Amino acid sequence: MKLNLLIVGLLMVASTSWPVQTFTIEDDGLSAVPRNAEVVIRHSEAKDDDLQRCELVGKAVDLDGDGQATDLIITMRDAAGWGAALGPIWVLRNAGDSFVIVLSDGGYSVTIGKAKHKGLYDLIISAESAGWSRQSIWKFNGKSYKKAKEKTKKLH
C-alpha cells in the first residue's frame, strides 16, 4: 500500500514538473534541419518562392514527454517578407524515417506548455509588433494541432 502511494505521488510530481520550454525564431540555438524534414516543408509550400530560397532552421523538441527530442519546430533564417520580429513556424512530428507537419503558423515565439491533449503538449505561439500582440493556444486533436484560443490586443 505504501509503495502504491509512493508511486502515485511520484507520478503526480512527474506530470506537473514538466518544464515549460520557449524558443524564438531568432534563437542562437536553431540549426539546419534534417533533409527529410526540409523536403516535407518545401513540398507543402511549393508555390512560395521566398521559402524555396530561404534556409530552414529549427530545434528538436519532445512533444509527447517521452524524454526523446525527436520532433521538430522549424522556421526560416531571415524570414523574407514577414516583418521585423515575425516568421513562419512549422511543427513536425517524427514519423519514423519521415516527418509530418502537424502545425503551420506564423509568430515570434513557441512555448511548449504543461497540458496535453491526445498525447501531445499544447503549444502557445506569440507574436507582437508596434501596433498589436497575439497569443494563440494550439491543442493536438490526434492528427494535427488546432487553434483552441486566440487573444489579440491593439497596442497604443
Summary of the model, kept short:
By secondary structure, the protein is α+β, with helices and mostly antiparallel strands. Helices cover 19% and strands 46% of the residues.
Walk me through the structure:
- With 156 residues, the protein is α+β, with helices and mostly antiparallel strands.
- The chain has one domain.
- The protein has helices spanning 2-16, 35-44, 49-53, and strands at 21-24, 31-32, 56-61, 71-76, 87-94, 99-107, 109-117, 120-128, 132-140, 145-154.
Largest sheet properties: 5 strands, antiparallel
Shape: globular
**Strand portion, in percent?**
over 45%
What class would the helix/strand composition place it in? alpha+beta
Q: Helix content range of the residues, please?
A: 10-25%
- Helix-strand topology string: HEEHHEEEEEEEE
Number of domains: 1
Number of helices: 3
Number of E-type strands: 10
List keywords for this structure.
alpha+beta; 10 strands; 156 residues
Question: How are the secondary structure elements laid out?
Answer:
Blueprint: H1 2-16, E1 21-24, E2 31-32, H2 35-44, H3 49-53, E3 56-61, E4 71-76, E5 87-94, E6 99-107, E7 109-117, E8 120-128, E9 132-140, E10 145-154
